């Protein structure tokens, strides 16, 4: 691990811990995600996932605790109230406009939401913004907006996000190993 | 005296052939009674029978409906599970991009804005 990541990753974790102590007004959750019907028609592949608390509970009932991936997901889902994903992949570059995401970004400018980190990858032409919402001193929401030339994705997770549980998901579902143990 | 009474009794109780008419009449009445019983069952027996049939049909329908609901619930649960895992996978992919950008100082421009 290089110097930058050694400095920044503990900082990110520290920021999350700090944000978790800040009590501010609760944001409207879940986010009102646009339909994106027009974009869905143009997309080569689209993912539209809406899992409210009932469906999350139902899904959790079908997770096999003997499988590491399922067990980790089950533990994470326990504190969640909703998972909403909109993801569209296109055959050509920039079929969608940045304005398509504005309605979502506008909601994230409301009190309670904090932009945790925003990254721009010149190599991959990818922008990823990560937002967290805080209620009564606890993180109660996570939103990721990722825009790439041929894909944009919005992930809105509502509910208590336990970083330790997220940490335990490292290496599963493609979640990178954050090496928190080494940084303690 | 005693012998007279005895004779009278013996005479009164002697076996007498009732004749073919009597036998035919008895047999006809038996047959008629059987037909009547078969044609017109007693009302409470009919109601009981229909109630039993209705209960049996209701039970079968109930079992089928419960089975169908369970199948639908299972199907929806498996779909929800697949969606949940897909959502977590997508989340992981996007977090991975952010991680790689943070981790790759040569190819990335990293901005950090916690708003705090």
Description:
The complex is a heterodimer of chains A (184) and B (116). Helix content of chain A is 32%, strand content 31%. Chain A has seven helices and six strands, in the order H-H-E-H-H-E-H-E-E-E-E-H-H. Chain A has helices at 3-19, 37-42, 53-61, 68-77, 102-108, 163-168, 180-183, and strands at residues 45-52, 80-89, 113-121, 126-135, 138-148, 151-159. In chain A, strand 5 and strand 6 form a beta hairpin. The longest helix of chain A is centred in the first third of the chain and has 17 residues, at 3-19. Chain A is globular. Residues 21-28 and 178-184 of chain A have low confidence and may be disordered. With 116 residues, chain B is mostly helical. Chain B has helices at 2-12, 20-39, 43-103; one strand at 108-111. Chain B is rod-shaped. Residues 108-116 of chain B have low confidence and may be disordered. Strand 3 (113-121) of chain A pairs antiparallel with strand 1 (108-111) of chain B, so a sheet runs across the interface.
Describe the structure concisely for a colleague.
The complex is a heterodimer of chains A (184) and B (116). By secondary structure, chain A is of the alpha+beta class. Chain A is 32% helix and 31% strand.
Q: Which structural class matches the secondary elements of chain B?
A: mainly alpha
What average pLDDT do the residues of chain A reach?
77
If helices are DSSP runs of H or I spanning 4 or more residues, what is the number of helices of chain A? 7
Query: Roughly what fraction of the amino acids of chain B lie in strands?
Result: under 5%
Q: Supply Rg of chain A.
A: 17 Å
Oligomer status: heterodimer
Distance between the termini of chain B: 138 Å
